[in-house]
Specification:
Radius of gyration: 14 Å
Largest sheet: 4 strands, antiparallel
Order of helices and strands: EHEEHEH
Strand content: 25-35%
CATH superfamily: Transposase IS200-like
CATH class: Alpha Beta
Number of domains: 1
Length: about 120
């Protein structure tokens, strides 16, 4: 059965979360965090959006952002799905262990009003 279509936020605000499969660590040292931030910066250059906040935890990532045009979130999520495997590949080579991420472990939470925003 296919996934239902994503509902777009009228505010354009989204809380995006992704993590490693089985809650495996994505980051082991400071260089890993910097590498992911560079990937996010590259995506920001390709697809304009405001990144209001981020939180890089050991095994997952939170991004709080606003799309420039309604529907841009679809392209942004696609780019993250495209580029994050490059990051995890970098982590696996560096640490010589298997770190897996997957699109099934990717959530987009819509921020519909100021109460949720706070």
């Amino acid at each position: 059965m296919s996934r239902p279509p994503r509902v777009l936020s009228k505010t354009g605000l989204y809380h995006i979360i992704f993590r490693g499969i089985n809650r495996q660590d994505l980051f082991e040292e400071n260089q890993d965090y910097i590498k992911l931030l560079e990937i996010i910066e590259k995506i920001k250059e390709e697809e304009k959006f405001e990144l209001y906040a981020y939180c890089l935890m050991t095994n997952h990532v939170h991004l709080f952002m606003k799309e420039q045009n309604m529907g841009d979130i679809k392209k942004i999520v696609h780019m993250v799905n495209r580029d994050v495997p490059d990051f995890t590949h970098f982590s696996r080579i560096k640490s010589k262990k298997s770190v897996k991420t997957g699109t099934s472990l990717f959530r987009v939470i819509h921020i519909f009003n100021r109460v949720i925003f706070l």
